[in-house]
Amino acid sequence: MSKKYALTAPYYVYRIAFRSHDIPKLRASHWIPCFPHSAREIWVKQRQIRDLLLAIEPGAQWEKHEARMCPRCHRWVVGIQAQMMRDREQRARLKGEASPPCSDYCEARSGLPLKNLRRWLAPKAPES
Ligand SMILES: [Zn+2]
Fold first, then answer.
1. Domain-wise residue ranges, the chain
2. Residues, CB within 5 angstroms of ligand 1 (ion)
3. What is the pLDDT of residue 111?
4. Starting from the edge strand earliest in sequence, which strands make up the sheet with 76-78, in order?
5. What is the CA(14)–ligand 1 centre distance, in A?
6. Cα(71)–Cα(51) distance, rounded to whole angstroms?
7. Least packed by Cβ within 10 Å: which of 9, 35, 50, 98?
């Protein structure tokens, strides 16, 4: 896979709903904070976590969804919205532009342009 495509590859997450157990408490980095989260429902980022949860309750209901985090405001979207966000990112990248806002409410988390942000982070490796 070329690097250019790796940047806009679809990213998948899993929604899991238990019927007869409570879901064990997971590390915050394993689930998606702004999605529904209850004792019996959770959205997780990794297939391995899904497999572990399904091992606890093999009859649990689960689905796979495309998801994407807005690179500007860090809001997560899912399904068709994620697909559209990925298309916009891909087009912007091909034109050498920054990612467009995801919505009217999208506000960049950082006031620094990406180039300056990278310099600010150096020499640490950027988070992948
Ligand atoms: Zn956004």
1. 10-117
2. 70, 72-73, 102, 106
3. 60
4. 41-44, 11-17, 61-69, 76-78
5. 21
6. 28
7. 9
Tell me what pLDDT residue 1 has: 45
Q: How far is the CA of 77 from the centre of ligand 1 (A)?
A: 9
Bigger pLDDT: 33 vs 43: 43
- The residue count of the chain comes to 128
User: Please, what is the Cα angle at 105 between 119 and 63, to 5 degrees?
Assistant: 90
d(CA 48, CA 55): 10
15: confidence class by pLDDT, cuts 50, 70, 90: very high
56 C-alpha to ligand 1 centroid (Å): 35
pLDDT for position 51: 96
Rounded distance, CA 27 to CA 57, Å?
A: 19
CB 13 within 8 A of CB 32: yes
User: What is the CB neighbour count within 10 angstroms for residue 77?
Assistant: 19
pTM of the model: 0.71
pLDDT of the residue at 99: 86
